[in-house]
Structure formats: structure tokens, C-alpha cells
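Hello,

Following up on my earlier ticket. Below are the four sequence lines again, exactly as submitted.
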Amino acid sequence: MAVHVLTLMAWADDEPLKSEQVAESVNTNPVVIRRMLCELAESQLVVSQSGSMGGSKLARDPERITLLDIYQAVENRGVFSLHRHPPSRKCPVGVNIGSVLNDVLDEVDTAVERVLANITIKDVVSRLRPCVSDANGNGKRKQVARAQLVSVRN
Amino acid sequence: MAVHVLTLMAWADDEPLKSEQVAESVNTNPVVIRRMLCELAESQLVVSQSGSMGGSKLARDPERITLLDIYQAVENRGVFSLHRHPPSRKCPVGVNIGSVLNDVLDEVDTAVERVLANITIKDVVSRLRPCVSDANGNGKRKQVARAQLVSVRN
DNA sequence: CTAACTGTAACTATATTTGTTACAGACGAT
DNA sequence: ATCGTCTGTAACAAATATAGTTACAGTTAG
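Thanks for your patience. The regenerated structure is below:
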């Protein structure tokens, strides 16, 4: 969702967008968007203005905002996590598995971050453009495996 | 948890473990373990036996079981996912952001899988051993950033 | 046959995320 | 100045996903 939001702003060039406009594209509630915008603003990815004629826009050029920036702004946990309750302290494996797994988790997080750091909002916009210029919206882009559930909404 | 479970079995060498023993080390309910063992058995990572003197053990050598095998056995979704509800079809960004993001998600998943594919249960066991031989359990391993919440349990 | 296991269904509990309503405060326009 | 239109944020409800629990049928060694 956050990537979607920042992509909209890059698309809008430098015109501030209202949370309601963004919410309509994302298909959710404006407050959800505003909450997210607050986090993005704290990380200096967007700037928002209150009042009439207000709205939010990117704080800097789309090519200077990476998906890693966004990820770190809105996500505060790594991709995996440990046991809900810590394992038994009586078991030799249980006591120490945590620190071993944390090392693994760090490796995974680093790999994810390396990927995200190499994709900017500008990249997303340009990957988007071919689809958009495709008149009937039924282009040659490969069918994705990760099926998106069709809801009754929209 | 799944890695913990398979590590216990590698540790136990070839002796079958009961779900209750495993549950004690993991600090959870035996049924949670049995549920997970079913998934691991479907992926042929463990073999279980019913009846008295039953239990579960690894289906093959620890060095032939990677964390990717385990991940695929128990986790059926990638590390990130798209919007809960699909975006607006009226918005040029909303219509097409999904396929662009799916490409990104595939890149991320691939990176994660590459990391997991290179770590075996045998590796985990050997990374574990230095900690275990450390008498008072307070060794030189670096303090992990990812704090594990201390619960009242155990 | 019995005791000790697994497999599994059905349910409850807990945690996290998302959506909603409500409202105070900021700000431009008039 | 004050009015209409925004954001920021609190408080809460709904939805989702995961974990934990109870119960029991089916399997197997002795």
C-alpha cells in the first residue's frame, strides 16, 4: 500500500494529493492513508499540509526514494520472527536456538533489503507506464502466480 | 518453530521423539507440534509413527534438509503480500500497480529462498554446538538486536 | 487387551492489521 | 474574522491469522 501511495504521488508530479483521493485509488479509508502518510512523513519521504488546498506530496525526487526507504518507514519488524513464547531453558537446543536463528534472520533481512534498496519509486513508475499505455488494459505482461483474491468490493 | 523442531530431531540422532517431548522444548502444546509435524511429513522431511513407542524423526540426513525445504513445507505465502482489497480499477496506477509489485515480490522471495537454500539443519546444529558446550550459557556470541520478548511462561 | 502414541476436528484465545467514527487544530479564501 | 476544507490522532470495531486447548478415533508394541 505504501508503495502504491508514493507511486501515485510520483504520478501526480508535484501536485499535492488529498488523503481521500489516495484512498479512492487504494480502495480503502482515508484515515488508513493518513496514518500511513504520518509514518512516511516521519521518515521524510512525503510532506503534508493541513488546511484547505492541503494534501501530501513526495519530499524528494522519485528516483531518490527506494522501496527500502519505504519498507523501513512503515514496517518495524523483519520478515520472519522467532517463537511466540521463548523455548525451554532446560533444553540445550531450546536455550541456544534463538541466537542461531537470529543470525539467520539477519541474513534473510539483509538479502531482502538489498533487493528493495535497488528499486526506486521512479523505477516503479516506469515499469507501470507500459501497462497504462496499453489501451484495453490487457497487455502482454506475464500472468502472475501470486493470485490476488477477488473481493466483492470496488 | 519448525527449524527448532527439526533441529531437536537432528540432535536426537535417530531416536524418535514424541510430540510431548518436542512441545516441552519448544514450550508449547503437543498438538501444535503434531500439526506442524504433519506438514513436515507431507513434505517428506520427517517420518512419524503412531502407537506405543512411536514418535517422529528426520526422514533423511540433516545435511540434506535445508531451511528452504522447511520454509516451503510450513509456509504457504511469500514474505510480502499485496493490498487486502484490490485497488481501484478506475485509476491508471491502481489498475496496474499489482503486476508491477508482484514482480518485486518475486524478486524478494527469490532472494529469501537463496539464503534459506544455503543453510541446512546440520549447519544449525553445528552453529548450536559452541553455545551448548559453553558451560554457564553466557558465551561470547554477540548480543542480538532482535529482542525476544520475555514472557511469564516457562 | 491395554497403554501409549499420532492424526485431526472443533473450538477458544491472542495478536496484528485494517477499517470506522469522531473531533481538535491548521490553513487558505473570502 | 470566520468559514469550509484539509490533516493528525484517539478510540474503538471488525477482520484475519496464528497459537493454544480439549476431545477422541485410529494405530501399534508389548
